[in-house]
Amino acid sequence: MAAGSGVAAEACVGQVVLPGDVLLLPAHPDEDGEQLRLGASVAPRGRLLCGPGLRRCAAGLLVTKCGLLRHRQPSGGAAAAGGAYWVDSQQKRYVPVKGDHVIGIVTAKAGDVFKLDVGGSEQASLSYLAFEGATKRNRPNVQVGDLIYGQFLVANKDMEPEMVCIDSKGRSSGMGIIGQDGFLFKVSLGLLRKLLAPKCEVIQELSQLYPFELVLGMNGRIWVKAKTVQQTLIIVNILEACEYMTADQRKQALAKLSGH
């Protein structure tokens, strides 16, 4: 597909698209006369969502990343104009996105703000008040080198990324400082998305092998802690290798381990 040409989005699903390609949308606006909605987590019936690697333009969708075009049908049924489009790419550098849950490493304290390395082009900021129950007198015990699991409140190209460890109701919801023990490692963003999928087979199979704690960050970082160091390293090795293993190969490897 030549850069800048217009091709129907439906015809390109599962194919490689390049930055500059224009994907044409079905000419059936929804009830509000709006054909596209950005940044929503759930698509109303007939609404079309624009995911990572795509941007709205006058003709339809402009591709901003190289990768495979994906499409998810709306939950209601076979409405052609509904669902979501995104580009599935093997991107190495993480680009912060508002609402993403990530694992950051505290690199500095600057007054009332902590600076965190999140794997992006610049560091993110985290206020000491962005923790559940935090006040001026009751400050969280955060030290340089600590791992923080939180989500982006602000993330765009014109502003410094800002993280919080509370949801809209002020609850931690599992976010905050990650324990000192455990093992932190990095995987590709493509593998991370697979692990975050509902009912992920890899996670289900590993949970039958050993009991362990797992934190998945959208920035490609994974924190694992099992009962022993050996079990932790086994889980880390399986998670790193499963990107290049078939389902049968993975099951054979797990069968050998469970037989010990």
Automatic annotation (TrEMBL):
It is found in: Cytoplasm; Nucleus, Nucleolus. One of its GO terms (molecular function) is RNA binding. It comes from the Eukaryota. GO terms for biological process: CUT catabolic process; DNA metabolic process; exonucleolytic trimming to generate mature 3'-end of 5.8S rRNA from tricistronic rRNA transcript (SSU-rRNA, 5.8S rRNA, LSU-rRNA); nuclear polyadenylation-dependent rRNA catabolic process; poly(A)-dependent snoRNA 3'-end processing; regulation of gene expression; TRAMP-dependent tRNA surveillance pathway; U4 snRNA 3'-end processing. The keyword Ubl conjugation applies. Its main location: cytoplasm. Residues 182-230 form the K Homology domain. It holds the Pfam family KH_6. Residues 15-90 form the Exosome complex component RRP40 N-terminal domain. GO terms for cellular component: cytoplasmic exosome (RNase complex); nuclear exosome (RNase complex); nucleolus. Component of the RNA exosome core complex (Exo-9), composed of EXOSC1, EXOSC2, EXOSC3, EXOSC4, EXOSC5, EXOSC6, EXOSC7, EXOSC8 and EXOSC9; within the complex interacts with EXOSC5 and EXOSC9. The catalytically inactive RNA exosome core complex (Exo-9) associates with the catalytic subunit EXOSC10/RRP6. Exo-9 may associate with DIS3 to form the nucleolar exosome complex, or DIS3L to form the cytoplasmic exosome complex. Exo-9 is formed by a hexameric base ring consisting of the heterodimers EXOSC4-EXOSC9, EXOSC5-EXOSC8 and EXOSC6-EXOSC7, and a cap ring consisting of EXOSC1, EXOSC2 and EXOSC3. Belongs to the RRP40 family. This is Exosome complex component RRP40. It comes from Syrrhaptes paradoxus (Pallas's sandgrouse).
